[in-house]
Structures are given as structure tokens and as C-alpha cells.
Amino acid sequence: MIRFDQVVKKFGDHVVLRELSFTVRPGEFVTLIGPSGSGKTTILRLLMTLERVNGGTIQVGEEYLTHMERKGKLVSADEKHLRKVRKRIGMVFQQFNLFPNMNVLRNLTEAPIRSLGLSRDEAEVRAKELLEMVGLSDKIDAHPMQLSGGQQQRVAIARALAMRPEVLLLDEVTSALDPELVAGVLGVLKEIASTTDITFLCVTHEMQFAQDVSDRVMMFDEGQVIEDAPPDKLFTNPDHERTRSFLHAVLDRA
Ligand SMILES: Nc1ncnc2c1ncn2[C@@H]1O[C@H](COP(=O)(O)OP(=O)(O)OP(=O)(O)O)[C@@H](O)[C@H]1O
């Protein structure tokens, strides 16, 4: 569903991704772990087309995100092509980024009406189903400011799902939350991962969550995936010393 092939990303002289290659299969939940500043968010930003590659290709499903076919040749993607592929991908951020001046219902219906062309009635039916799924049916008329961080993040998850993404990117979705609110958000994500066929690519420092929900965990360092294994293997018996020392450091901090 997602394929990075020899992707290079630089900021000035700083090479963040060094010919990075990996794949995520349809319906898989894959978690990226690795040291701060190693480029995990950059991978998600490339998929969101917030950044452009300096080399290599990215595919989402059967389509290239970075390129498009013209007269049998691959050429750089134009804005229209990027927008089309980008619609298949949703993202939930650390900061919930809800529209502050809209109530919860409108936060969920605005984009489906504008971008997917749904009628208001259709969008509202879908929004209500999603609010039930994230346990917030009673907050439909609330404004974001009236909700806890955990509730806002659950609205943000429902809002991403309202766009019917095939791929959902999660970037440190619990980092801005008080500890007692983390479990509720992670529980909702676990439920969605197990009941939908959405493909997930997740960046998190919540190792227990990564272990519970992931099909695979990729340890990322210095622009490369250095280890890629099911969570039981990676967390208990990693092959690489670098993975081992990273996990020790993270678990000592917890
Ligand atoms: N727009 C930018 N301009 C210049 N440098 C950038 C830009 N975005 C990211 N970087 C640099 O790229 C590197 C990778 O950043 P990135 O945010 O992807 O790391 P990360 O692994 O997600 O880190 P963290 O776990 O702390 O969020 C960092 O050194 C960062 O300073």
C-alpha cells in the first residue's frame, strides 16, 4: 500500500533520508520508532506531500505519489496529481488541529462536503457514526475548547476517518496529552485498527502501544530502517545493538 524506494530527502546539506526503502502492505499497522531527529516525521510529511523528495519514488497503492506517468514515462508529479493521491491519505497530528470556531459536528462534516462532495445529510450521518465509534456522541454540539485533550484527539481521529482514507498516518498522537487521557485515545485507535482495513503508519514513543497494536515495527536511524520485525521479536530480542540501546534508553525514561 505504501512503497518507499531509494528515497532521499535533504534539508540543505543535511541528508535526513538516505536511499530509504520500505513497504507497508494493505491493512497492516506499521510503527516507526527511532531517536529524536532521525527523520520519522519527515517520512509522514513526504506522504502528506508537505515535503518533496530529492530522489527515489514513493507509491501509494498502485499510484506514484512523487511521479506520474506521461506518454509511458515517469515524470515529476504536478500539483493536481499530488492532490489526487493525497486524498487517499489521512493524518492525525500531535496537536489536534481542530477548527476552533466550529462545533464537533462541523469539524467532521466540513471537509467531506467540500472535498468529497457529500451532501450535508450524508456527511452528518457518517459523522454521527464516527462520533459513536470514538465514544463522543454526547459532544456533537461542543466546541473544541470545551473538550479535554483526549476528547479533542478522538474528534481529530474521527475527522480524519470522515474522509474515508485508505492510509492513516499517526504522528505522536498522544504526546500532547495528560497521562490519564492516553489510554482512551490508544484504545480508540486499537479498535479502529482491528475493525477496518485501513493501512496505518504510526510514529510513537508509546512502546507498549506499539507492541500491542503493530503488525511490524521498524527501527529507524540515520536515514535508514535498520531493523524491521514483528513487535514481539523487536521489543524482546532485537538483532541490532542500536535497537537494543535505543529501547533501553526509552524504557529507562518511562
Ligand atoms: N523544514 C526543515 N528544514 C530544515 N531541517 C528540517 C526540516 N524539517 C526537519 N528538519 C530536520 O530533519 C531532521 C529529521 O526531523 P524529523 O522531524 O523528521 O525527525 P523525527 O525523527 O520525527 O524526530 P522527533 O522524534 O524528535 O519528532 C532533524 O534534524 C530536523 O531538524
Provide a quick synopsis of the model.
This protein has 254 residues and is of the alpha/beta class. It is built from nine helices and twelve strands.
Overall description:
By secondary structure, this protein is of the alpha/beta class. It has a domain of 69 residues. The mean pLDDT is 92. Bound molecules: adenosine-5'-triphosphate.
Helix residue percentage = 25-40%
Provide a count of the helices. 9
Mean pLDDT: 92
Helix/strand order, N-terminal first: EEEHEEEEHEHHHEHEHEEHH
Question: Features of this protein?
Answer:
single chain; 254 residues; alpha/beta; 6-stranded mixed β-sheet; 9 helices; 12 strands; binds adenosine-5'-triphosphate
In terms of topology, how is this protein built?
Layout: E1 2-11, E2 14-24, E3 29-33, H1 40-47, E4 55-60, E5 63-64, E6 67-70, E7 73-76, H2 79-86, E8 89-92, H3 104-115, H4 120-133, H5 149-162, E9 167-171, H6 179-195, E10 199-203, H7 207-213, E11 216-221, E12 224-229, H8 231-236, H9 241-253
Parallel strand pairs: 3-10, 3-11, 8-9, 9-10
Antiparallel strand pairs: 1-2, 1-4, 4-5, 6-7, 11-12
